[in-house]
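Risk register update: the risk of archive-format incompatibility is retired. Evidence:
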Amino acid sequence: MTQIVVGHTTLVSPTDAGRQLGETISEKFGDQSPDVVIAFVSPKFTYSDVLAAVNHHCRPRILIGCSSAGEFSGCSTGNSTASVMAICSDTILFNAALGKGLRTSRTEAIKQIEHVFTGSQHTDFPYRSALVLTDALAGYAEDLIQDLTLITRGTYQLFGGGAADDARFNETHVFFGTECHSDAVVVLEMLSKKPIGIGVKHGWKTAGKPLRVTEAEGNRIISLNAIPAGDVFAMHAQQTGQVFNRDDPMPFFLHNVIGIESGGEHKLRVPLALNSDGSITCAAEVPLGATVHIMVGNAETACAAAREASEAALAGLNGEKHAGSLLFDCAATRLRLGQDFQDELKAVATTLGSENFAGCNTYGQIARTEGQFSGFHNCTAIVCAIPE
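Archived output:
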């Protein structure tokens, strides 16, 4: 049996916010300490104060989480807030590990966490999943997912996202116990006797002809079809009757993202900046030689994507009852939708038949599952459904 409690707070004092979240958990679980608490906290707070208060008031065996760019518990949501999910289970085993120094050596960081994958030692818990929360600003998130897939031999579902900082793009943190770390990744192993379902969907559509990435460097697109990337976006704006302000391109970028062709799907990358040389900096790497499209979406397609991701997650439970879910979506989605982001949460609640879910807006979303579109994404809804 698995029990899940979620909570959300708008209190401004970090200690009071943590106390309220911890008391919400302890009131529901009584004398039982949760196996794990997952916390999502705005950079408005002093993270360690929130975490210490949560830890004091509900005493979880494992406490992890990340900084965020919008937090929610069910349909309760906001910026500059905090949310939690607490889990008690006799059918899921949890282990957590922290890897530090991603920028210096991703290989060394992975060595620090590889011991967390204990599935081969617990054959009576056949369903293997792992929540991955990483400092996306450290870069190479796609490579990190590939590395974790290799060391687990592809036997784990991976899901999660990149820690955020309210669209400041300055410094992001992951949480391990009551400590917070930048340039790090935290992994929560979840070994279950029952299937855990994961759904992945973005809902964006192609606009215009395919383009070849003719020059790129990391997350910077220099040219498309041998034309400066900024000029390509300017031409697209003119052709579609949109405004592209080179001095303030973000409003245009939020509604026109890059889609990398991948196995019949499009892996999204959000443009973040137009540089003086005409190149465009994206939220994650764009491979040289890739075929890409400019993609479009709106509030309706975002809600539809969240609904379809929720449906897929429920289907992954293989008939087991739903106890609660984790939801990750992009910081750019929240910026683009504004108040309409509430409609996306309502679509998730309606589809799940429950508001017993929690999560946050992240800098990129992680998914690696069988039968789903895998990798490191932007502007994509990731839903993990946990069985009773």
